[in-house]
Amino acid sequence: MSGNKAWLTVLGIGDDGINSLTPPALTLAKTAKTLVAPQRVLDSLDLAALGLENSEIVPWTMGVGPTLEFLKERRGTPVTILATGDPMHFGIGATMRRMIDADEMLVIPSPSGFSLAAARMGWALQDIACISLHGRAVAGLQPHILPDNRILSLTSVGRTIHEVAEILVARGYGGSKLTVLEHMGGKAERVVEATADDVGAFDPDKPRFADFNVLAIECVAGEGVRIHAPVPGLPDDAFAHDGQLTKREVRAITLAALQPCPQALLWDVGAGCGSISIEWMRAARGAKAVAIETRTDRQAMIAENAVLLGTPRLKIIDGKAPEALSDLDAPDAVFIGGGLGEDGVFETCWKALKPGGRLVANAVTLENEVRLSQLHSEHGGELMRLSVSRAEPVGRFHGWKPFMPVTQWSIQKPWRQP
């Protein structure tokens, strides 16, 4: 969007440098008063030929935080940034929008790494998972590892390819085909193909892959592989736990009541091993969660599960509700799996919950069942009892092994308060 307030210009540029800019983008680059660009991009430019010899040139060696601080100091003063590909697709432009209004920015993208890679692979973008492992935990790949799934991923450095292969092999997908597309559009463009099994360990003295690349993955499941689908209800043994776990069947019903939505925030109060938080984040694009847990051993299990199941951004709070809830962002949904009997827990959660938000509480003790019945009488909502039995061996035969019944109360907060 380009209004009169626009002072920040962000131009997408490809590996072929200035040749990738459209005529309008090239004009904007030539008239920049302050130009910020990665050093490798600056090295490819003839600043004098572009008429930039008298402009302020800032090599982009800063991290995200310092870059945002730099822009805060220059706010209102014309600044032009050359960024790789599409700045609004896992790029710096999207990051800048956290602090800069859209009408203060003019963004002209070049084809993203995803678009270039899809064109070379012959893949339809709408049919594949596009993710970024650039500056992000490689564990973010985990939810996308599914039979025959195709993935395009931005990467940080060549080492990332080895880390991805290690994860695939550990999950039983060692036969997956990896295509490393390096320096697309540039003079050094190269394509390297290998299976995850063949990639091997990273050798810093003999790097196998260039740092500037996009990774294409064709998932191939090995015999007997465990499928971890995004639909809630992962097997119980997918989680490290000490028994404090919402069982698979109840967990699926609980997530259905919580209704995960893109970008929505969940408070998981009394998180145990984090199963509800983790499945919430896996179920919807960009979903966020905060797991509140008092025990340090369980916090460690939450962290372990979050990495293994692909939600490394799960936030873990060491504390007890309601005190630990005071400084958190308002949630779109709340799950109370523990601490329901503590004074003020429900009241604090209900007050913080956004209008239209969902609250779900599970109870297995008589005392907490009484509490849920009271809350149901006061606020309405739905109250149900869930009983689950699984067939297990009894000598040479099988019989039903029942789990403790779970009472569940769910309610949606009114959009308008009476």
The quaternary state of the protein chains shown equals single chain
Low-confidence stretches: none
Q: Which CATH architecture of the largest domain is right?
A: 3-Layer(aba) Sandwich
Terminal-residue CA separation: 39 Å
Strand order of the largest sheet: 13-12-11-14-15-19-16
DSSP helix count? 12
Number of domain units: 3
Share of residues in helices: 25-40%
Radius of gyration: 25 Å
Supply the CATH class of the largest domain: Alpha Beta
- Total beta strands: 19
Describe the global form.
Answer: globular
Largest sheet at a glance? 7 strands, mixed
* Helix/strand/pairing category: alpha/beta
CATH topology of the largest domain: Rossmann fold
The CATH superfamily of the largest domain bears the name: Vaccinia Virus protein VP39
What does this structure look like?
The protein contains 12 helices and 19 strands. It is an alpha/beta fold and 418 residues long. The protein has 3 domains: 8-110, 3-Layer(aba) Sandwich (Cobalt-precorrin-4 Transmethylase, domain 1); 115-218, Tetrapyrrole methylase, C-terminal domain (Methyltransferase, Cobalt-precorrin-4 Transmethylase, Domain 2), CATH 3.30.950; 236-412, Rossmann fold, CATH 3.40.50. β12, α10 and β13 form a beta-alpha-beta unit. The model has no long low-confidence stretch (mean pLDDT 93).
